[in-house]
Every structure is written in structure tokens, then in C-alpha cells.
Specification:
Layout lengths: L5 H22 L5 H20 L2 H9 L8 H26 L4 H27 L4
Helix pairs in contact: 1-2, 1-5, 2-4, 3-4, 4-5
Length: 132
Amino acid sequence: MCEWNHNLIIQDIVLAIVINTSATLLGGDPFDHTWYIFTCVALATNVLGQFLLPTGSIAAALTKPLGDASWRIYAQIFIENLIFVTIISFIEAWVHTGGAGIVAAWLSTYVYLVLIGYVTSVILYHALKPRA
């Protein structure tokens, strides 16, 4: 479980919009009323995942061998993003397909969504970082 604050809420909303919009564009789906519905699905999935999974602890443990390396934070961001994009994109593929062809639908956009989510997460990290 993560620590809730206004930055986390901003990150969740922005990532839900970016991931769902990217998935919509990559999948060639129309921008209609379903865009909003699937953005809400992405946001709800992300929030639920944060309640259930200690992604920050997982990322910290997996990057512990990096010690005080200046780029350790980027590895942690990548791991957290990978976990959430995997879950969100899989749930969205399931909702879109109803289960039939879920793996093909999921994998067709997965790598792109991981990269887009990672870049967005790094930008948000820098934009929301406390200023000295």
C-alpha cells in the first residue's frame, strides 16, 4: 500500500488519462463515450492496485543492489510503472474483449503503453518533486 497525498492523486489521474488515451489511439478505437468509461476503469484499477500491492517496497527491494546510484530512482519508477501498466492494460484488454482474444489484444499495445507510462511517470516525478 502506498502513502496517499495530492501528488499521488494527480499522478493517478494523469496516468489514467495518458494510458487510456494511448491505448485508444494504438488500438484504433473511436473517441466516444467509452473513452471516459475506460479512463475511469484505468483510474479505479490503479487505485485498487495501490491498496493491494506494495509497489514502492517491491521497487525499492529490487533496486537495492544499485545502492546510492543516481539513476536508482529511474529504475524504481520503471518497476512501479511496469507493475501498474501491466495490471491496467490487462484489465482494460479484458473489459474490451470480454475475455475472447484477451492476450492478443493486451500484447498488441503493451510494450508501447509501458514506454509511454514510464516517460509520463518520469515527467510527473520531476514536475511534482518538491523544490529546494
